[in-house]
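# step 3/5: fold
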Amino acid sequence: MEEAVTTSRTITVALSLALLLPACGLLSTREPEAPITDRGTFLQPDTPERVVDNIRFAISEQNTRNYRRSFADDLIFQPTATAEARDPIWSGWTATDEEGYYAALVSSVADAAEMSIELNDVSLTAIDADHFVYDATYVLTADHNRPETPTVFQGRLAWEIEKQSDGLWSVASWTDREVGTEPSWSDLKAAFTG
């Protein structure tokens, strides 16, 4: 008799579980979730050229995260002589300041507006195996919503691109120079800082 009660209980528990399993969906299939990915294009910065490509992509895609990833944590920035004389913000400029200005710029660009950079007269010079200098003229266009600030900036840049301890490359030092009387990238940074 005890065996019959145990068998009856086992059958009751098995039937209850069989009825509950489809109801809670444990055995049913579901749509797979999309993988978590970063927005934008970021190439493994295993060469100095890839760092430049990543900055260009970050500008055209208005991607603040990928822009920041292209600069060393101890970034040194030297503004144009005019910007340095006019604005007191440059003392101790850091990668955090660089990220902050760029985030402010991107947030002021309308969804349909474009940002672009054109680099010309390019030279890439090896200082040693772990240091290169990328020198170029630039035309940076940023269609932002601040009418008092120009939307086209021109100048000459020198990026010292260094291999970091993880074997990847990033911009460690940046010198901005004026070309004529056109607003420079330093002027853009000053307009979107603070």
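# step 4/5: annotate
The first helix runs from residue 2 to 24.
# step 5/5: archive (pending)
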